[in-house]
Amino acid sequence: MGSETEGSSFDSNCINCWSVPRCCSTSLLYSFAQRNDTTVLDEPLYANYLKLTDVPRPYREEVLAAQNPDGNAVVSEQLLAAGGHEGRGGSRPVLYAKHMGKHKIGLGPELFRRAQHVVLVREPYGVLQSFSNVLEPTQQELGYTALLEIVSELRVLGRRPIVVNSDELVSEPAGVLRALCAALGLAWEPAMLSWPAGPKPYDGLWADWWYKNTHKSTGFDAEVRDARKPLPAHLKPLLAETYPLYDMLSRQAIRPLTETVPRPLGMHAADGAGDANDDPVTAISSSSTPSSSAAALTRPQDGCQVPAGGGAHRVGTHVYVQDPRNEDVLIGIRDGVSGRFELVWRPHARVSVLDSGYMLGDGVWEGIRLHRGVLFLLEEHFERLWEGAKAIDMDLGLSRQQLHQLVYDTVDANGMSSGVHIRLMVTRGLKPTPYQNPNITIGMPTIVIIPEHKEPSPIPREVGIRLFTVHVRRGPPDVQDPGWNSHSKLNCIAACIQANKAGADEALMLDPQGFVATCNSTNFFIVRKDMVWAPSPRHQLRGITRARVLQLCHDNCIPIKETDFYVTQVYSADEAFVTGTFAGVIPVVQVDGRVIGNGGRGPITARLQQLYADFVDRYCADGRRELR
């Protein structure tokens, strides 16, 4: 059992777990009840809380009648009294008491001085959604401030708080429970992982109101949690208030222990790099503010911006229908230092300003579509991601199967199915100081998964886009391999800027020899005499959609060739189009002021649009695939 680090009056066998509501605290109570050395108590300080706060509860009088409402008496007579509870000192010497953090009101200092304490915390979006199904949440009812007070009091006493992240407990129960037992000085018992379904004799009398989901469970099962759904608008200010408190607590959470030796962090870190939690941070995203201009609703948000007064025709390849649900999406973040993966509410999704991606553009990324609940062509996107990471000598620190699960976990937590675009970003990770040498990096790469409800606008598919040939060239692979889908996009951004200034929707870029190469964010094709021409792949990104269009041409007897050609041949083409993960197949109707073909969507472009749409539907109709 735990050592008596605080002197003879310290009882290491008295374990108090303080929690916010809807935090798997009852599941953790059931888990400890399966130990052969432990007796459990379910919220013995509840009557104390009800008496001192006078908060309404449908079972208020029953609790006041069943429990001692004097909290300090409960501490001395039940929690700290050696042998004072049935089983203490005998075959079950450990007492595990579950509490809500807010129940500590009115208590003296003895319990915190003389017992062990665990703080159980959960991401507040899920807490608010679940709690509001029963009662109206308030800051006081949630109790994040109370948990922070407990952690602060323990710190003053010179004791490191034992913090458990509820979401991590659900996703990795064995590892978290091993770590918790080790922190408490208890032997690990695998029996803690499961229990019989249904009510328990040690349940509080409020169980019928609060434990319905938990009574369905036989373990730490995410399936019994309430499905994620949009939060009511009146609760968003409370969410914003609680998130910084949660973030402060969650950063201190224990890490899961496995039976294998964990990968050491900071293998190349400089000595004395310090605690990554002390680093300043920068927001990677924030909730959007609705524009007062109607024009903002049709302006490209992820590609070239159309200059004001540019005309309704100029629409771009990345125009989408704005969706207010994106203000509340959960973003998946794998912290490379702690190794923890969390789903973070968008306004609070952040990475360090010392992250390699922010400082140096050092990393690779993918854009992926979700259609009918399936990540479209995920295998090919992962192949390109791993190829790029290998090229820049970056180990992601997880397998393709593990990342596959994290991406699906993120979209599933947001209840997403179709009309979704995911930006998957991997950077080399945290730097101890601004310095480009990749060896000077702490821990593993940072992984960020940003899912958005992002339905492409139908307008570009119908009316087409205009291109402008820019002076900025695609570089040769011995300068920076154009096949890398890297964070450093200045070459394409410089081209986009010139296209913006010319009033075009996208830039057409040439290779070092003056042949047509690609666009700044899409791949380019032309059609001449019923044959599709694709620029040589030497100086462009290996486009996933580009490759699929080439295959569709072969499969459907559409003549196709990859070749070098000049801008002059573009001007006189019968049709032109671009391809991309988000854009799909988009007609090009004008290049450098020259009208292409008849100035509209050509028949081969229209056919490829339909063939591609049909392929997307067929691919996704087969359901989710296991990665091999």
UniProtKB/TrEMBL annotation:
InterPro entries in alphabetical order: Aminotrans_IV, Aminotransferase-like, BCAT-like_C, BCAT-like_N, Class-IV_PLP-Dep_Aminotrnsfr, P-loop_NTPase
Q: Which UniProt keywords apply?
A: Pyridoxal phosphate
**Where is there biased composition of kind Low complexity?**
283-296
Using the UniProt annotation, give all residue ranges assigned to the region (Disordered). 269-302
Q: Which GO terms describe its biological process?
A: amino acid biosynthetic process; carboxylic acid biosynthetic process
Its recorded name reads Uncharacterized protein
Which family does the record claim for this protein? Belongs to the class-IV pyridoxal-phosphate-dependent aminotransferase family.
Domain of life of the source: Eukaryota
Cofactor needs: pyridoxal 5'-phosphate
Q: Does the keyword Ubl conjugation apply?
A: no
- A GO molecular function held by the record: catalytic activity
Q: Which Pfam families match?
A: Aminotran_4 (PF01063), Sulfotransfer_5 (PF19798)
GTP-binding recorded as keyword: no
